[in-house]
Input
Amino acid sequence: MSPQLDALAILGGNVDGNTAFAVAVGRRGTLSETRAPIAQRVDLAVLVQEALQQAGMAASEVRELRVDRGPGSYIGLRVAVTFARTLAAFSGARILSAEGLEVVAAAALRANPELADRQICVLLDGRQKRVQFGAHRAVGGQIESLHAPRLTSDAEAVSQLDRNCVVLIDAAVEARIGATISASGAVLMPIPHVSASTLFAAELRLVEVSPLELEPLYLTGSYVG
Output
């Protein structure tokens, strides 16, 4: 990780199912993180305030915002994106964003460098026998998406997997189609621990966007074509 000067990262997608929000602050070469309690509701503004106070930084000093835009928790993403837009409007901070499935793949690659030679697929439960599906590969040590995340049927997702795939999968999808995926020869791994600090990982490629361009991708949102 290489914390940027006066940077704030907000994770609202809750892709690993552990906590509603996580916040990380990068300042003067150090990185600190504050997480909401597991399975508890929390006020994001209060969490951010606590994180900034611990880092000795005022909100007006934030020069860079890092945000995951999903797919993920509907409420979490909506709150996080709205908060980031508002803070950027008042502080003038630039916004860097990444898709939530890219964040998952980057966390897995950071924990398991040997995945650099494999295709990394992420499957999150989309309900009604559907999954959010994303395929990625490592290019120059960074995660690159092979396509935009898409909501697809279980069967269609399985048909796109082969022996070169490492599949990061949540518990609901594993219970439903884990055995079928294993039969395809793909390697199954649980969704790794994902934190706001992951938004500072060298393995993650972020894109600068304007506040108006920062749109959340919900788990079953209308963005799916």
User: Anything to note?
Assistant: The helical segments are 44-55, 74-91, 100-111, 154-159, 171-183.
